[in-house]
Structures are given as C-alpha cells and as structure tokens.
Model the fold of this input.
Amino acid sequence: MTDADDSAERARARRQRPAGTRVRMSAAQRREQLIAIGRQLFAERGFDATSVEEVAARAKVSKPVVYEHFGGKEGLYAVVVDREVRALLDRIAAALTAGHPRELLEQAALALLDYIEEEPHGFKVLVRESPVLSPAGNFSSVMNDVAHQVEHILGGEFKSRGLDPKFAELYSQALVGMVALVGQWWREARKPKKEMVAAHLVNLAWNGLSHLEPKPGLITRKVK
Done:
C-alpha cells in the first residue's frame, strides 16, 4: 500500500466513525494528557486546591485512571515538578555557551527570563511551595543547582584575577538569588522588556553600584 492509499484509508475510517465517538488513547498518551492537565491546575490553584476529581473531569476519565498512572495527586504533582526542574536546568545549561564571564551572566539571566515568559504555568508550579515535596522539589533548589554551575565559572575567574576562589560559592549564590528574585517580580510586572531587565541585572552584577552604566546593553542579545 502506498502512502496515498494509507492516507485515504485513514480518511475513510474517520468518516465511518459514529459522531461523538472518541479515539481511545494509549496509556502513554493518557499519561501525557494527565500531566498537562495537572500542570495547568497546579499552576492556577496550587497543590492544596487541586483535586484528583478535577484532573479526572478535565481529562474526561474516571478517578481510578489518575490513580492508576500516578498513585494519587502527590504522584502527579511530583512528576510535574520534576519535569519543570529538568526543563529549566536544561535550558540554562544549553544557554551557557560563551567564554567571557559577563556574557555567561547575560545568558543565564536571559535563559531564566525566557523560561518565565514562555512557560508561565511551569514557572508558577516551581515557585509554589508544597508540603508533599522535599526541598529538592522547589524553585529554591533549582536555583541552588544553577548557582553551583555559576560557582565553577566564578572560581576560575577569581583565580585568574588573584582573588580567593573559596568565596566563589558566596558570590554565585548572591548573583543567582538576585536574578531569581527579579525574575519572580518581573513575572507579574512584565515591564520593562525582558532584555532591558537582563541588561540592568548584568549592569549591577558586573559593574557594581559605584560604576553603573547609565544606559546598559547586552553583548549576547539586542536590547529592544
């Protein structure tokens, strides 16, 4: 059978299917559907205000289907958070491609702001605290992982400048914490524009209060 014949056969099958009949999802497809619905509900309402009943209702399945896949609300929440943690860390790691420390700082700040802008539900899930998760499953822990990556960069820079590398951890926590807090503020404010926010963050972190540039720019991206 050619590809054209196969497409025609599928089209005939769709036409012959009774109106209102739903195509049965595979187990993998159903799991992904439930994760997507859970992600949205947890972002909108938080863990406590979200119920298995509502997840099931939005998916148009019975409650036992949710329990079968995740064991309950806690299991679904843990999967959603784990995915967001990995997605954010992967995004930041992929962004850190420059060789100069200032450019790396820009890339890290922009990667976080990009994530906040493009994945608002995921970010809301991460910044919400939940009693069912250990400290390894919240936004603070994600930023701590990012700080450890920045620490290695700063450590090398400190050595090259004759500074004590043992303070690289302190500075990395300070830098990442500043970017993270500003990112949470910007999530609600949405102004100034993302690139301008990153430029001012880097301006403060790189130049310090005593040497701030009046109109900071970015090396790695144009400020709009």
